[in-house]
Amino acid sequence: MLEPTVVGHLLGFSAYEGLVYGFLALGVYLTFRVLAFPDLTVDGSFVLGAAVVAVLIIDGVNPFLATLAALGAGLCAGLVTSLLNTKLRIPALLASILVMVALYSINLRIMGRPNLPLLREVTIFSLASQLPGLETRLVYQLVGAAVLAVIVFLILNWFLRTEIGLALRATGDNEQMVRGAGVDTDKTTILGVSTANGLVALSGGVVAQAQGFVDVNMGIGMIIMGLAAVIIGEALFRPKGVARLLLAVLAGTFVYRLVISVALRLGMAPGDLKLITAALVIIALAVPYLQKKIRREWLPPAPRW
Amino acid sequence: MKNKRILKLVGSVCMVVALALTLVLVSGCTAPYEEEEGPLSIGIFQIISHPALDSAREGFKDAFKAGLEDEGLSETDVVFVERNAAGSMDNVYTIADYFVSLGVDLICAIATPCVIAATTAVEGTDIPVVFNSVTNPADAGIDDWDEPGGQVTGVSDMAPVEPQIQLILDVLEPNGLTLDKLGVVYNAGEPNSVYQVDVQLADAITALGLAVDVVKATVSTGADVPAAAQTVVDAGVDAIWVPTDNTVVAGIEALVGPCEDNDIPLFAADVATVERGALGCWGMDYYDVGYSSGEIAVDILLKGANPATIPIETAPANLLYLYPDEAERQGVTIPEDLLDQATEIIEDED
Description:
The complex is a heterodimer of chains A (305) and B (350). Chain A is mainly α.
């Protein structure tokens, strides 16, 4: 089991998964952590991105354009959630659940049936596989995901440092204060939630191209994965600063997928996988708390959500 | 400052150790770690635990073990690496990749998402994939049933049509009726139904040596079913057959009424429809679906067959469901010898 090739493959594959699902985790990080907006649209917008990519690619659209379209579709989903919240004053949790549920029907409409294969279609990965040196599946998937991740990282890193990005981050910290400073927090919320869902849909679109299919149920549990990845990243790396935070989220996704991969490899009983997930998140949450306790620092009461 | 850094380090180490411990503990008390050794290894994975899929998996394993014995080998000559995605689509590709990295000799994929993920994962390798419990192989990227062409083949759980037509004859003939005109109601937008009517039904009629005039009535939504029913009734059909068509089956009640009023026997292609007013059908057991795929795996691994040329099979239909009370209302009596063969006889609820 512990031959270097096996371990290498395991790490490489988890790295690929960490990157493609990392886009989703970045989206979750943006809503839950940066904006303090509990957004459950994710389970729907993930599939939305995948469905849009699949339908466009099957129609012969350039895969890069299709991936961009997925991002755009996700932006729209996030836009709806945030408009329901800011303009109709529907609580964030409920607004996002409503959009998530509605997206199930919309995704089925887009796909036309519950499952669409993308085998032998031209995807960003099949294009990458034609480059010299990238013939192996693991290599071209990893490199393709890494190139995308670098682009997303650079854009987000720039965006969160701009004036509007700062206002967005401040909205989650102290909305009253930001309003006092003359920033329209509705706008920052709309911008943040849309961007987040765009990232989630991008993740869905990339995953669909890599694994070769879209299933209308593939979004189930994505929000949990995203949250777990964010929490693990924060707990493990205790990042300071925008760039390190973003990297920590990607690293957290890597660790999460690595643990799932190891669990699957060990042949855990199928029902126990979820227990591992739960245990992982509990540990990630408990360790920083226990460390503070050892240092006898002041501890705030547990947040309600 | 130094203290803080040490704490941080200790924290990280604790975390990793805790993670590893949880894994070992949970895996230790649930499933023993399997030794991936032996001359042959087969990776079997399914999307979720479900009675039908579980029995398909057992069928696959039993068929392969039987094949080993026929070849003079024993059960110890194969290792089944069984994994289950626990309903999470994100785990399907992870498992498929694991099988490939493990270098298994064959992958058995149960249900559509698993087949596609396996097809993606085996790219660039020569690992064959045998699927089962996939209704429409086109969903898994296979368009040619007779010659799949790649390294993927298997067993569809699409209902075979010939026994269904035979059943119609078996019911009509003892009642002194003949099958000259057969009404078929289906949704032309469902690939499964089109295939069953255009290819399978035509083949079945040829195979049985019949001269039957097939009257087709198509629907696009459930609301069209009554009009379609009227069309076939007006054509004076001797019996109506409905393929496994989601649209028509969902609105089957709209067919049952006209059939009862005009004494036309209604036959289905799936067992669930019998309870809702079809008078009978031959259905399949998922154990057999799995068993057939296990036999394909035997052909590939033990007899050197090339998956590219192994046709997609359908499972044998050997579960007979009958609804005698409904048959009376549709103007026929189900003969005793059929009732004796029945796996299940549906009765009217009072």
